[in-house]
Write a structure and sequence with these properties.
Shape: globular
Radius of gyration: 15 Å
Structural class: alpha+beta
Distance between the termini: 27 Å
Number of strands: 5
Protein name: Head-tail adaptor protein
Biased composition (Basic and acidic residues): 1-14, 46-55
Order of helices and strands: EHHEHHEEE
Strand content: 25-35%
Largest sheet: 5 strands, mixed
Region (Disordered): 1-20, 38-77
Number of helices: 4
Length: 110
């Protein structure tokens, strides 16, 4: 699990990081999807290219890390006073990734 700030995430996502408007909508909706292009995702092994979704599921079942790209399930992204957790990683047909994120409830200081 990684914990990233907004600036660190922007560096990982390359030339098109999520904008202020994206984060404002994500905070309001309490969830969002971050999409990344195939060139941002690290190359997998030869078997991964033949059936990448199956290979990723098999790696996860065995507990072996794989090429999820810049984020993985369980990673946390801090945006100002808010935090999002990556709840799912989906591979696109083109080889990119979609990261489903959900707002984490703030801790109560009571």
């Amino acid at each position: 699990m990684k914990r990233l700030g907004r600036a660190e995430l922007a560096e990982r996502l390359g030339p098109r990081p999520p904008s202020d408007a994206f984060w404002n909508r994500a905070i309001e909706a309490e969830r969002a999807v971050i999409g990344v292009a195939p060139d941002v995702v690290e190359e997998g092994t030869e078997g991964d290219r033949e059936n990448p979704e199956r290979a990723r599921r098999n790696r996860r079942r065995r507990g072996i890390p794989g090429p999820d790209g810049p984020l993985s399930t369980g990673d946390i992204v801090d945006v100002g006073d808010h935090s999002f957790v990556v709840v799912a990683v989906e591979e696109t047909e083109a080889g990119g990734r979609r990261y489903r994120i959900e707002l984490v409830e703030p801790r109560s200081d009571d």
